[in-house]
Amino acid sequence: MNAFPCLGRVLTLALLGWGVPLSALAQPTNLINDGTTAANLSLLANQFGTAGAAMLLTPEADGLRAEQSAAYPDFPVNAVWYAPAVRPVSDVYGVLADVRPASANPEHVPGVMGWLDPAAGRGIVFRVVPGVFGSFQVAVIDLAAPSAEANDGTAGLFHLDGTAAQPLLGSAWGALGEYDPGAFVTLHLAFAAPTAADRAVLSNVTARVTARAYQGGDQPVGDPIELLTTLPAPAQARVGYAAKLDTLFLPGGVIGHVKNLRVVGAVEVINRPPVVALTSPADGARFTVAPASVTLTATASDPDGSVARVEFLRDGAVIGTVTVPPYTLPVSGLAEGQYTLAARAVDNQGAATTSAPVRIEVVDVPPVVTLSSPADGASFAAPAQIELRAEVSNPGGQALERVEFLQNGNVAGQAIAPPYQVTLGGVAAGAYSFAARVVYGGGKTVTSAAVAVTVTGVTQPPV
Questions:
Q1: Which pLDDT tens digit goes with each residue over 427-450?
Q2: Mapped to the 3 state alphabet, what secondary structure does 178-223 carry?
Q3: Nearest 5°: CA angle at 383, between 377 and 389?
Q4: Does an H or E element contain 428, and which?
Q5: CATH, domain 368-456, list 3.40.50.300, 3.30.450.20, 3.90.1310.10, 2.60.40.10
Q6: pLDDT, tens digit (0-9, with 9 covering 90-100), for 63-99
Q7: Which residues, 6+ apart, have CB-to-CB distance to 447 below 8 Å?
């Protein structure tokens, strides 16, 4: 399932002529975004001169509220919220959006953008500038440009006679006519193949650009704009909403509302891959008990469908699969060594994404045991009573089973919990070696250094 249920994989619609009622356009159009959510849109904005200004798109009852955060940029910030998962199949298509400026003041400039190359940050916008001296405008936006002139202008736009278009009425601008800034207006920006006549006046022309506004039902409003462009056709064209707060004297503010972004023409829905991260264990984690038991945990989501499964990988090989959240997998029996772990999410259309790798190390850290009593070289009188006492530290967190006390290599007693001590009574005269041995982890052992003890006294002759 994708995030655009009104779209098929490829839908082909005819583009009709211009200067006609909106209802005369080929129907149905492909609805890309209805204005109730911005979840399927990505933002592109000026790369330079923003002074930290953020461009925001927030769902409201009247559509998506476009605004600029509080800042005084070096020049007005252009922004486009485009649909990364939908693209026109050919260079012949139309893009429409319903827009309404925040006021009748000319600084509130909403619009629609097509011919957008997200990689280059460049596209062609059709927008409305309200106010007494306002206009409908077609412009080229270059979000990577370092100056206002290069960021927003008419470079690459031409009249039908091949002369360069200008930011003027009768050129790249059209009069507003009976336009009402208090109501939504539908902006329709279309791209068509250049004609032979177009190529005759402009040899490197790439498209004929037509812009038309509709309001008050479906009737045209204001002057239409027809131009030629020499901008290269984007290899991966996208469409979107556009907005600009066209002033340097306001510290941000609402620009207007936008909704019902749609395309007339053949479109392709591109399956976006899932997003996945391995959240546990942490990269560089060290496990000090071998064989180790580790629980792998991942988060996964899909921007335009659903996650079918999450596969967990150890050193590139799948060791387990989980189909429903929470995505966790207990793994046991990890011997000493280094491992590279990852999670791979697969969506409902088969697209897969592998997380960043997580590297862990398993090192078996044994407990440390010392025989603290008796002291090495101690001497007792027979028959002796000798207290054996051991100190145990467990830096690796091993499962301790017992401490055995060894007399001349043989177990003379044991303790299963601290304090680890036993008392030997009636020890006859002689030389003895005592040590403590810890049993842990299912039968593994570690033994302390031995201490030598002498028991002196009269040895009774055998009877």
A1: 999 999 999 999 999 899 999 999
A2: CCCCCCCEEEEEEEECCCHHHHHHCCCCCEEEEEEEEECCCEEEEE
A3: 50
A4: none
A5: 2.60.40.10
A6: 999 999 988 899 999 999 999 989 998 899 999 999 9
A7: 369, 406, 435, 436, 437, 438
